[in-house]
Design brief:
Helix content: 25-40%
Structural class: alpha+beta
Number of helices: 13
Largest sheet: 6 strands, mixed
Distance between the termini: 46 Å
Shape: globular
Bound molecules: adenosine-5'-triphosphate
CATH superfamily of the largest domain: Transferase(Phosphotransferase) domain 1
Number of strands: 11
Length: 358
């Protein structure tokens, strides 16, 4: 097992080469990965000063966004280098935003002017080593740090101390999409269509960068301050320049037939997941869910045993069934998803795809 010192060394020397992620080996997924536990340890990253809420106009603070490249890592060169060294004392620590498997996420504000607000994710190195996910976390950082898209959560940089790794993330002001879906049960056709439009755009961007996400599901989606969708978790993604990968991973309900059957797969796994997501938004549960057993779900996926409830509109039904095709090559390409009547019907005329009037 790797030592904390070796993880520290990895993060000290983390640099982005021209082809950084050419060996995305991952330990075979145990069933526990397919059914993630949601009981992370409680970890403190330091003094909590009582917190602050966003009130940008009054305080003159900026929410860390597209224009905040002055604080981000400089990726203009092939070897990404920090434009400055960050440390915990550079931030005022605000309210906790949530807990993950390896640590807590806090809203923070940079002490230096202008006062940017962002999310600081703290990961304990000992937990990472214990769970043997060093490579996975490293890959997640390498991938996410190089992505720039309005519907992909930005990772501005990272720093670490002896015990912890801190990720400087774009602040997603409206929190988790999953929570809203649980609260509402399902989304309207308009809202679902707006999200799927943004997802398709983000996935097209990722695939153009040879990144396959492989773990699209509501739990991995956040919402920005204007309700725009943000893909926020790259823990299972791979950088696959022209390669097909054999490893089985992803969330059970979102696995495509080729992965269930242990076959090779490519970026079209994300097309399938987009179909599952569309269904779950509209219906409130994933299409092949079988609460009796995982095997029953696998069987339903392999047969593409798809039953769409009658309340789903014909256009949405058409899109779902064109994405949920057994043969990956027959799945509707993302460029055509963007032109599908169900997407065009709800796309605002004048605005870009970035926002969502949920
Ligand atoms: N950038 C962010 N902006 C706002 N809230 C966030 C942000 N990142 C995370 N959160 C909140 O913090 C919680 C924990 O996030 P984290 O990414 O650590 O864990 P997770 O995605 O729930 O699980 P896992 O540890 O399996 O990745 C999220 O569920 C979310 O509520």
């Amino acid at each position: 097992m790797a030592s904390i010192a070796s993880v520290t060394k990895q993060f000290t020397t983390l640099e982005i080469s021209k082809n950084p992620i050419n060996n995305p080996s991952r330990p075979p997924c145990a069933p526990s990965h397919l059914k993630p536990t949601r009981k992370p340890p409680i970890i403190n990253i330091g003094k909590y000063d009582g917190g602050f809420e966003i009130d940008n106009e009054k305080r003159g603070e900026k929410v860390y966004g597209e224009a905040a490249d002055d604080l981000a890592l400089d990726s203009s060169t092939s070897r990404t280098r920090p434009t400055r060294e960050w440390k915990l004392t550079d931030f005022d620590i605000g309210r906790p935003l949530g807990k993950g498997k390896f640590g807590r996420v806090y809203m923070v504000r940079t002490k230096c002017e202008p006062n940017y607000i962002l999310a600081l994710k703290c990961l304990y190195k000992s937990e990472i080593v214990q769970s043997r996910v060093e490579k996975q976390i490293r890959r997640e950082i390498e991938i996410q740090q190089n992505l720039r898209h309005p519907n992909v959560l930005r990772l501005y940089g990272y720093f670490h101390d002896e015990k912890r790794i801190f990720l400087m993330l774009e602040f997603a002001g409206q929190g988790e999409l999953y929570k809203q879906l649980s609260k509402k049960g399902s989304f309207s056709e308009r809202r679902s269509s707006r999200y799927i439009d943004q997802m398709a755009d983000a996935l097209q961007y990722l695939h153009s960068k040879h990144v396959i996400h492989r773990d699209i599901k509501p739990e991995n989606l956040l919402l920005g301050i204007n309700g725009e969708l943000k893909i926020g978790d790259f823990g299972w993604s791979v950088h696959a320049p022209g390669n097909r990968r054999m490893t089985l991973c992803g969330t059970l309900d979102y696995l495509p037939p080729e992965m269930v059957e242990g076959k090779e797969h490519n970026e079209k796994v994300d097309y399938w997941a987009l179909g599952v997501l569309t269904y779950e938004f509209l219906v409130g549960c994933p299409p092949f869910e079988d609460k009796n057993s995982a095997n029953a779900t696998y069987r339903r996926i392999a047969k593409v045993d798809l039953k769409i409830p009658p309340h789903v509109s014909p256009d949405a039904r058409d899109l779902i069934s064109k994405l949920l095709k057994y043969n990956p090559e027959e799945r509707l390409p993302l460029s055509e998803v963007a032109r599908h009547p169900w997407i065009l019907k709800y796309r605002p005329k004048s605005t870009s795809k970035g926002g969502s009037e949920a």
